[in-house]
Amino acid sequence: MKALLATATLALALSTSPAHAKLRAFACEPEWGSLLKELGGDQIDIDVATSALQDVHQIEAKPSLIAKVRRADLTVCSGADLEIGWLPQLVRQSGNRKIAGGDGAFFAASQVATLQKPTQLDRAAGDVHPQGNPHVQMDPYRLLAVAKALAARLAKLDPANAAVYQQRLAAFSTRWTAATKRWEAKAAPLKGRNIVVHHDSWIYLTQWLGMKQIGALEPKPGVPPTSGHLAALVQTTKASNTLAIVRGAYQDAKASEWLSSRTGVPAISLPFTVGGDATSKDLFGMFDSTLDKLLGAAK
Amino acid sequence: MRSPLLALAISLAFAQAAQAAAPAAPATAGAQSRIEALEARIQALEANAEAMRQQAEAATLALEATRAEMEAMKSFALAGAQSTASADAGEATPAAAPESANGNAFNPAITLILNGSYSGHSLDPDAYQRSGFPLVGEGAPSARGFSLGESELAMSANIDDKFYGQLTLAIGSEDGETELGIEEAFVDATALPGGMALRLGRFFSNIGYLNSHHAHTDKFFDRPLPYQAFLGNQYGDDGVQLRWVAPTELFIEVGAELFRGQNYPSGGAANSGAGVRTLFAHAGGDVGTESEWLAGVSVLDSRSEGSEDGFVGDNRLYIADATWKWAPGGNFKDGGVTVRGEYFLDDRDGDFVDPEDSSISQAWKGTRRGAYVEGVYRINRNWETGYRYDRLWADNDGPLASDFDPVRHSVMLSWLNSEFSLVRLQYSHDRPNPDDTDNAITLQYQMNLGAHGAHKF
Question: Which of A147, B138, B306, B321 has its CA 20 to 30 A from that of B51?
Fold first, then answer.
């Protein structure tokens, strides 16, 4: 019993000791975990809350996540209300004041201009995001802007390693800019092509590549489609020389495969985040795979 | 907005250039270089204008959207971390942040729960008697026919950097009278160090699993029998709570509460208005990526000076709870199974004083127990179904002695159109005493309006 108590005390002392402790970050989504890894390397301990196979709109404020948030010095999330169903609950339940606001809470969508801000807020339109579309990771330019802001935040929270973060940001920035040019050259055949999506989460990708979203299987976020809508969508898809029916790795294949079988347009699963398929081991791989799959459909 | 300004700047620059050029027919070197400098500037401005054109367009759109948003959001202002986040938007955010000059921007997040039901009972609810367990608090069966049930209005917001506040009003009707009650009204101190959290005001105790959860997050129409019998459905009171979350990989939460002791299972606000003390501990975590669990033990210690069931004395209630959830891929909204059980042990040491006639009294010492187990199967995003078994064990002697132990079976089916609306059908087969059986069927709707709620696990 005594030994147990001593061990517990020791464990507590160790885990609460602030002296030269590594910065601990909680990433709501895998893409931000990956970005933290690019910018922080081994200087940061990173907990990633969700996987590429989970719908991040619909995560539960489960105990393991409360425990992770409790120990975090920084939370890095998409923001724009994407995590509103669970993150505020985690923050409040963890009792961790460091990440309750201010420098300890970083939101990617707050660092860039968001698209698709609804002009009218009405839940009849589904679970709309008043602050615009939160899935900003699908635009490499916005992602770079987020990286810059995140590196600055890391340096502010952990001044001892500020030089490391700046250095790693510079290296990432160079590689990323080169990769972006490469992607843009490669994606030239996609310009002007039409796609049908599962959920409205691809606006940043289509805008970047000059593609057009002509329809969605789930036109109102969080609300199942009506049969009338699906019938109309079959017509639109058939009539528009559609390149592909696109879904995220976390989305059920049934709906897009159904539409594919009705229209002959290929249904493809894009990674949407890091870990969404075998190639998407990091942010570079995520874009490589996304473009390869879209180009594959264009052949 | 920038374009006219830019045009003005450019035309001014041209005018200046023209003025400078005209009288300087001898073309002094100075004027020439000045013209060149101006030209360079114009070029730079034009390049800048081109670069900004798109941004300005986006910004104007965003601005319009924000204005519309402010109008619509009068009652929607967002609570918690998210709102601090938008304040923190900072350098790169175009247009959005500074537009909050509207006085309503700081209104609390408002959530309205509309709830209503139709119940059919084979046994008249007025004749309903539960062997060994008098009906207390809100623990009686629902009324026959149409009923508003309990609708809820909740408001919450960060008060400042150190406090968070929440008010929940419950609107219900009893015997044709509309009642408005304060269900919860509390303030959280959010800036305590080391994972500590302090709560002051009126709130639901954190004992057990269901007790701290609002009824609209329940999977069944009514609370399980042990909650009805031992807590009058749900124990809330005026008091203070201190809670600590350990900085460990495993989720560990411990806490203590001190309550006034006005409501069942206590009564009379004994001990100078601090008649109830509680202790609770919860632990939880993941098993792989598809399963998660939460378990806890709690004790509620009450000194009662006359509770609703006629008890005067010391009462100790122990609760053990366990929840296990499994979902394919960890997507709990699309499928999966939740299994939950709680066990109650109620230990009394005092006297029974008849609430109707205080001259009748007798010693009340003994224990009673209760338990429930429920399993809910999420079929897909729109449907879920579940079964619950709940029962009570009455005392063998004392004022409420009974040889019969009440038992009930319930099944439910829910249709969820979105995360904001639900329609539920529930059937239950209840044996409250040896002579009666109540077969009840309930059709219920539950709607969630306003701010997007973030629910506890």
Answer: A147
Question: Are A97 and A61 in a shared domain?
Answer: yes
Neighboring chain A residues of B252 at a CB cutoff of 8 Å: 67
Is-contact A217 A167, C-beta < 8 A? no
pLDDT at residue B84 in the model: 35
What's the burial of A107, exposed, middle or buried (CB within 10 Å: 0-12/13-18/19+)? buried
Q: Is residue A239 part of a domain?
A: yes
Q: Is residue A209 part of a domain?
A: yes
pTM here is: 0.81
- The nearest CA of chain A is from the CA of B139 a distance in Å of 29
Asked, for residue A4, whether it belongs to a domain, the answer is no
Q: pLDDT tens across A160-171, in order?
A: 999 999 999 999
Answer yes or no: CATH 2.40.160.10 is held by domain B113-450: yes
| Same domain (yes/no): A105, A200 | no
A8 occurs within a structural domain: no
Chain A residues with CB under 8 Å of B197 CB are: 92, 95
B316 φ, ψ (degrees, to nearest 5): -125, 130
- Which of B58, B76, B382 faces A224 most closely, judged by CB atoms? B382
User: A157: domain CATH number?
Assistant: 3.40.50.1980
A149 in the same domain as A72? yes
Residues of B within 8 A of A17 (CB-CB) are: none
Q: CA torsion, points A20, A26, A30, A31, in degrees to nearest 10?
A: -70
For A215-225, what is each residue's pLDDT tens digit?
999 877 777 78
Q: Identify whether residues A122 and A196 lie together within a single domain.
A: no
Domain end among A134, A156, A181: A181
Quick: pLDDT tens for A106-130: 999 999 999 988 877 777 777 777 8
At residue B204 the predicted structure's pLDDT band, cuts being 50, 70 and 90, is: very high
Residue B303: pLDDT above 50?
yes
Cβ(B423)–Cβ(B443) below 8 Å: yes
CB A116 within 8 A of CB B58: no
Average pLDDT of span A75-89: 94
CB neighbours of residue B457 within 10 Å = 23
pLDDT of residue B92: 41
Does the CB of A294 have a partner CB in chain B at under 8 Å? no
Residue A176 sits in the same domain as residue A242: no
Domain count within chain A: 2
Whether residues A76 and A171 share a domain: the answer is yes
Q: Tokens 């959280």 identify what position?
A: B188
* Mutation for A interface: B75, B245, B293, most A CBs within 10 A: B245
Mean pLDDT, residues B30-54 taken together: 64
Q: Which of B167, B56, B163, B43 is nearest to B108 (CA)?
A: B167
Q: Which pLDDT value is given to residue B46?
A: 63
- Write the CB contacts of B301 (distance below 8 Å, at least 6 apart in sequence): B276, B277, B278, B314, B315, B316, B317
For chain B, the structural domain boundaries read 2-104, 113-450
Task: Decide the pairing of beta strands B236-245 and B196-204.
Answer: antiparallel
Q: What is the spatial distance between Cα B229 and Cα B134, in angstroms, rounded to a whole number?
A: 7
User: A93 CB near a chain B CB, below 8 Å?
Assistant: yes
Alpha-carbon distance values, A110 to A23, A74, A76, B311, B383 (Å): 22, 15, 11, 57, 35
Instruction: Answer whether A252 touches B (CB < 8 Å).
Output: yes
Q: Which of A129, A150, A181 is the last residue of a domain?
A: A181
Q: Are B13 and B41 in contact (CB under 8 A)?
A: yes
Task: Please tell me whether residues A201 and A107 are part of one structural domain.
Answer: no
